[in-house]
Design brief:
about 290 residues, mainly beta, Porin, twelve-stranded antiparallel beta sheet, 4 helices, about 40% strand, globular
Protein backbone atom coordinates (compact mmCIF):
# COMPACT_ATOMS: atom_id res chain seq x y z
CA UNK A 1 0.00 0.00 0.00
CA UNK A 2 3.02 2.30 0.07
CA UNK A 3 2.49 3.16 -3.63
CA UNK A 4 -0.85 4.93 -2.98
CA UNK A 5 -0.81 8.17 -4.97
CA UNK A 6 -2.77 11.31 -4.14
CA UNK A 7 -4.02 11.82 -7.68
CA UNK A 8 -5.83 8.46 -7.62
CA UNK A 9 -8.26 9.82 -5.01
CA UNK A 10 -9.62 12.28 -7.57
CA UNK A 11 -10.13 9.86 -10.44
CA UNK A 12 -13.90 10.13 -10.40
CA UNK A 13 -16.02 7.40 -11.97
CA UNK A 14 -18.85 8.79 -14.10
CA UNK A 15 -22.11 6.95 -13.36
CA UNK A 16 -24.30 9.10 -15.59
CA UNK A 17 -24.72 12.78 -16.44
CA UNK A 18 -24.00 14.80 -13.29
CA UNK A 19 -23.36 11.74 -11.10
CA UNK A 20 -19.88 10.58 -10.06
CA UNK A 21 -18.45 8.01 -7.66
CA UNK A 22 -15.25 8.45 -5.64
CA UNK A 23 -13.23 5.88 -3.70
CA UNK A 24 -12.75 6.37 0.05
CA UNK A 25 -9.53 6.33 2.04
CA UNK A 26 -9.86 5.28 5.67
CA UNK A 27 -7.50 7.61 7.56
CA UNK A 28 -8.37 6.05 10.91
CA UNK A 29 -10.67 8.88 12.04
CA UNK A 30 -13.74 6.65 12.31
CA UNK A 31 -15.48 8.52 9.47
CA UNK A 32 -14.69 9.84 6.00
CA UNK A 33 -11.99 12.53 6.18
CA UNK A 34 -13.60 15.89 5.39
CA UNK A 35 -10.77 16.87 3.05
CA UNK A 36 -11.53 13.87 0.87
CA UNK A 37 -15.12 14.99 0.28
CA UNK A 38 -13.96 18.56 -0.41
CA UNK A 39 -11.40 17.47 -2.99
CA UNK A 40 -13.66 14.94 -4.69
CA UNK A 41 -16.54 17.43 -4.84
CA UNK A 42 -14.24 19.84 -6.69
CA UNK A 43 -12.99 17.12 -9.04
CA UNK A 44 -16.57 16.06 -9.79
CA UNK A 45 -17.85 19.59 -10.39
CA UNK A 46 -15.00 20.31 -12.80
CA UNK A 47 -16.40 17.63 -15.10
CA UNK A 48 -19.51 19.79 -15.67
CA UNK A 49 -17.98 23.20 -16.50
CA UNK A 50 -16.13 24.59 -19.53
CA UNK A 51 -12.45 23.67 -19.51
CA UNK A 52 -11.26 27.27 -19.30
CA UNK A 53 -13.26 28.09 -16.16
CA UNK A 54 -11.46 27.69 -12.84
CA UNK A 55 -12.90 27.36 -9.35
CA UNK A 56 -12.33 30.49 -7.26
CA UNK A 57 -14.53 29.85 -4.22
CA UNK A 58 -16.46 27.16 -2.40
CA UNK A 59 -18.76 27.13 0.60
CA UNK A 60 -19.65 23.80 2.14
CA UNK A 61 -21.45 22.11 5.05
CA UNK A 62 -20.73 18.72 6.56
CA UNK A 63 -24.15 17.32 7.43
CA UNK A 64 -23.52 13.72 8.52
CA UNK A 65 -20.41 11.62 9.22
CA UNK A 66 -19.50 9.47 6.24
CA UNK A 67 -18.69 5.76 6.25
CA UNK A 68 -14.96 5.32 5.57
CA UNK A 69 -15.60 1.79 4.28
CA UNK A 70 -17.85 2.88 1.40
CA UNK A 71 -17.44 5.02 -1.73
CA UNK A 72 -19.16 8.41 -2.01
CA UNK A 73 -21.58 9.48 -4.75
CA UNK A 74 -21.48 13.11 -5.96
CA UNK A 75 -24.61 14.67 -7.48
CA UNK A 76 -23.83 17.87 -9.43
CA UNK A 77 -26.54 20.49 -10.03
CA UNK A 78 -25.95 23.15 -12.68
CA UNK A 79 -27.26 26.29 -11.00
CA UNK A 80 -26.02 28.82 -13.56
CA UNK A 81 -23.72 29.33 -16.54
CA UNK A 82 -23.13 33.02 -17.24
CA UNK A 83 -20.75 34.77 -19.60
CA UNK A 84 -17.99 34.87 -16.97
CA UNK A 85 -19.09 32.67 -14.06
CA UNK A 86 -20.55 29.20 -13.54
CA UNK A 87 -22.12 28.00 -10.29
CA UNK A 88 -22.54 24.40 -9.22
CA UNK A 89 -24.16 22.75 -6.22
CA UNK A 90 -22.67 19.42 -5.17
CA UNK A 91 -24.25 16.86 -2.87
CA UNK A 92 -22.18 14.00 -1.47
CA UNK A 93 -24.34 10.94 -0.83
CA UNK A 94 -23.93 7.67 1.06
CA UNK A 95 -26.66 5.13 1.85
CA UNK A 96 -29.24 7.40 0.19
CA UNK A 97 -28.49 10.33 2.54
CA UNK A 98 -26.73 13.63 1.86
CA UNK A 99 -23.65 13.80 4.08
CA UNK A 100 -22.16 16.99 2.59
CA UNK A 101 -23.25 19.91 0.42
CA UNK A 102 -21.12 22.45 -1.43
CA UNK A 103 -21.76 25.47 -3.61
CA UNK A 104 -18.83 26.39 -5.86
CA UNK A 105 -18.20 29.23 -8.30
CA UNK A 106 -16.01 29.00 -11.41
CA UNK A 107 -14.70 31.93 -13.44
CA UNK A 108 -13.35 32.42 -16.93
CA UNK A 109 -9.80 33.86 -16.62
CA UNK A 110 -9.65 37.64 -16.80
CA UNK A 111 -7.37 40.46 -15.62
CA UNK A 112 -8.24 43.23 -13.16
CA UNK A 113 -7.17 45.23 -10.11
CA UNK A 114 -4.78 43.24 -7.92
CA UNK A 115 -3.15 43.60 -4.49
CA UNK A 116 -1.92 41.41 -1.63
CA UNK A 117 -2.08 42.66 1.97
CA UNK A 118 -0.73 39.53 3.64
CA UNK A 119 2.85 38.62 4.49
CA UNK A 120 4.13 35.09 4.90
CA UNK A 121 5.70 34.43 8.30
CA UNK A 122 9.42 33.86 8.61
CA UNK A 123 9.70 30.16 9.45
CA UNK A 124 12.32 27.45 8.97
CA UNK A 125 12.30 25.90 5.49
CA UNK A 126 10.64 22.49 5.14
CA UNK A 127 13.97 20.78 4.53
CA UNK A 128 14.95 21.58 8.13
CA UNK A 129 11.78 20.08 9.64
CA UNK A 130 10.86 16.43 10.22
CA UNK A 131 7.83 14.87 8.56
CA UNK A 132 4.82 14.81 10.89
CA UNK A 133 4.18 11.17 10.08
CA UNK A 134 7.57 10.24 11.55
CA UNK A 135 6.02 10.53 15.03
CA UNK A 136 3.68 7.64 14.20
CA UNK A 137 6.36 5.63 12.44
CA UNK A 138 8.70 5.99 15.43
CA UNK A 139 5.90 4.82 17.75
CA UNK A 140 4.51 2.18 15.41
CA UNK A 141 4.39 -0.58 18.04
CA UNK A 142 2.20 1.60 20.28
CA UNK A 143 -0.42 2.27 17.58
CA UNK A 144 -3.75 0.49 17.36
CA UNK A 145 -4.19 -1.96 14.50
CA UNK A 146 -6.62 0.45 12.84
CA UNK A 147 -4.09 3.29 12.94
CA UNK A 148 -1.34 1.03 11.61
CA UNK A 149 -3.55 0.14 8.65
CA UNK A 150 -4.32 3.79 7.94
CA UNK A 151 -0.74 5.12 7.83
CA UNK A 152 -0.32 4.36 4.13
CA UNK A 153 -3.18 6.72 3.35
CA UNK A 154 -1.47 9.60 5.19
CA UNK A 155 1.84 9.28 3.35
CA UNK A 156 0.75 10.79 -0.04
CA UNK A 157 0.75 14.26 1.59
CA UNK A 158 4.03 15.39 3.17
CA UNK A 159 3.22 17.64 6.15
CA UNK A 160 5.85 19.30 8.35
CA UNK A 161 4.57 21.34 11.29
CA UNK A 162 6.54 24.40 12.40
CA UNK A 163 7.35 25.08 16.05
CA UNK A 164 5.70 23.86 19.26
CA UNK A 165 2.15 23.37 17.97
CA UNK A 166 2.48 19.60 18.27
CA UNK A 167 -0.90 17.95 17.88
CA UNK A 168 0.18 14.93 19.94
CA UNK A 169 0.96 16.69 23.24
CA UNK A 170 -1.67 18.12 25.60
CA UNK A 171 0.06 21.45 26.17
CA UNK A 172 -1.33 24.98 25.99
CA UNK A 173 -0.20 27.16 23.09
CA UNK A 174 -1.55 30.27 21.43
CA UNK A 175 -4.13 29.38 18.77
CA UNK A 176 -1.74 29.61 15.84
CA UNK A 177 -0.10 26.97 13.70
CA UNK A 178 2.02 26.86 10.57
CA UNK A 179 2.89 23.84 8.50
CA UNK A 180 4.54 23.13 5.18
CA UNK A 181 2.73 20.70 2.92
CA UNK A 182 2.91 19.23 -0.56
CA UNK A 183 2.18 16.06 -2.47
CA UNK A 184 4.77 13.33 -1.90
CA UNK A 185 4.73 12.52 -5.63
CA UNK A 186 4.77 14.68 -8.73
CA UNK A 187 1.28 15.58 -9.94
CA UNK A 188 0.18 16.05 -13.56
CA UNK A 189 0.03 19.66 -14.74
CA UNK A 190 -3.75 20.16 -14.49
CA UNK A 191 -4.52 23.07 -12.14
CA UNK A 192 -7.84 21.38 -11.39
CA UNK A 193 -6.02 18.43 -9.80
CA UNK A 194 -3.75 20.73 -7.79
CA UNK A 195 -6.78 22.62 -6.46
CA UNK A 196 -8.59 19.42 -5.47
CA UNK A 197 -5.41 18.20 -3.76
CA UNK A 198 -4.97 21.44 -1.82
CA UNK A 199 -8.61 21.37 -0.71
CA UNK A 200 -8.02 17.81 0.54
CA UNK A 201 -4.93 18.83 2.54
CA UNK A 202 -6.51 22.06 3.84
CA UNK A 203 -8.55 20.04 6.35
CA UNK A 204 -5.47 18.52 8.03
CA UNK A 205 -4.96 19.85 11.59
CA UNK A 206 -7.19 22.86 10.85
CA UNK A 207 -9.92 22.74 13.49
CA UNK A 208 -7.54 21.38 16.13
CA UNK A 209 -5.80 24.79 16.08
CA UNK A 210 -8.77 26.00 18.17
CA UNK A 211 -7.87 23.45 20.85
CA UNK A 212 -4.34 24.73 21.45
CA UNK A 213 -5.12 27.47 24.03
CA UNK A 214 -7.11 24.89 26.02
CA UNK A 215 -4.36 22.29 26.23
CA UNK A 216 -6.53 19.59 24.67
CA UNK A 217 -5.57 17.32 21.77
CA UNK A 218 -7.98 16.22 19.06
CA UNK A 219 -7.80 12.55 20.09
CA UNK A 220 -8.77 13.28 23.73
CA UNK A 221 -11.48 10.75 24.64
CA UNK A 222 -13.52 13.39 26.48
CA UNK A 223 -13.81 15.49 23.32
CA UNK A 224 -16.22 15.30 20.41
CA UNK A 225 -14.80 17.20 17.43
CA UNK A 226 -16.26 17.53 13.92
CA UNK A 227 -16.23 20.00 11.06
CA UNK A 228 -19.45 21.96 10.55
CA UNK A 229 -18.57 24.10 7.54
CA UNK A 230 -15.56 24.91 5.37
CA UNK A 231 -15.05 27.78 2.92
CA UNK A 232 -12.16 28.29 0.56
CA UNK A 233 -11.01 30.90 -1.96
CA UNK A 234 -8.40 30.24 -4.66
CA UNK A 235 -6.46 33.38 -5.59
CA UNK A 236 -3.50 32.39 -7.78
CA UNK A 237 -2.32 29.32 -9.71
CA UNK A 238 0.02 27.03 -7.75
CA UNK A 239 1.51 23.56 -7.75
CA UNK A 240 0.72 21.21 -4.91
CA UNK A 241 3.83 19.16 -5.64
CA UNK A 242 5.84 22.23 -4.57
CA UNK A 243 5.97 23.32 -0.93
CA UNK A 244 3.15 25.54 0.35
CA UNK A 245 3.02 27.15 3.80
CA UNK A 246 -0.33 26.87 5.58
CA UNK A 247 -0.72 29.46 8.34
CA UNK A 248 -3.69 28.96 10.65
CA UNK A 249 -5.14 30.86 13.58
CA UNK A 250 -8.28 30.64 15.67
CA UNK A 251 -9.74 34.04 16.63
CA UNK A 252 -12.58 32.55 18.68
CA UNK A 253 -14.00 29.48 20.37
CA UNK A 254 -17.17 29.24 22.42
CA UNK A 255 -20.59 27.58 22.62
CA UNK A 256 -18.87 24.23 21.86
CA UNK A 257 -17.62 25.61 18.52
CA UNK A 258 -14.25 26.75 17.24
CA UNK A 259 -13.50 29.10 14.34
CA UNK A 260 -10.26 28.91 12.36
CA UNK A 261 -8.86 30.98 9.49
CA UNK A 262 -6.05 29.98 7.17
CA UNK A 263 -3.73 31.56 4.61
CA UNK A 264 -1.79 29.45 2.13
CA UNK A 265 1.40 30.84 0.55
CA UNK A 266 3.81 29.51 -2.02
CA UNK A 267 7.54 29.62 -1.32
CA UNK A 268 7.79 33.10 -2.83
CA UNK A 269 5.26 34.52 -0.36
CA UNK A 270 2.41 34.70 -2.86
CA UNK A 271 -0.99 34.17 -1.23
CA UNK A 272 -2.55 31.38 -3.30
CA UNK A 273 -5.60 30.49 -1.18
CA UNK A 274 -7.59 31.43 1.93
CA UNK A 275 -9.65 29.11 4.13
CA UNK A 276 -12.18 29.45 6.96
CA UNK A 277 -13.74 26.65 8.99
CA UNK A 278 -16.04 26.28 11.98
CA UNK A 279 -16.41 23.06 13.87
CA UNK A 280 -17.88 21.34 16.88
CA UNK A 281 -15.61 21.10 19.94
CA UNK A 282 -17.78 19.56 22.63
CA UNK A 283 -16.39 18.17 25.88
CA UNK A 284 -18.31 15.11 27.00
CA UNK A 285 -19.19 15.21 30.70
CA UNK A 286 -19.01 11.74 32.18
CA UNK A 287 -21.12 10.74 35.19
Amino acid sequence: MSDIRLESLFEMEKIEQGLYRGQTWDLGFGAVFGGQVLGQAIASAYNTVDEERMIHSLHSYFLLPGDAKKPVIYDIENMRDGRSFSTRRVKAIQNGRTIFEMTASFQKPESGLSHQFADMSQVPPPEELPQDIRFFEDNYDKLSEKMKESLSYHRPVDIRTVGPANAYKAEKHEPKRAMWMKSRDKLPGSQQLHQASLAYASDYNFLSTSLQPHGIVAHDKSLKIATIDHAMWFHKPFKFDDWLLYEMESPFSGASRGLVQGKIFDQHGVLVATTVQEGLMRQVVKD
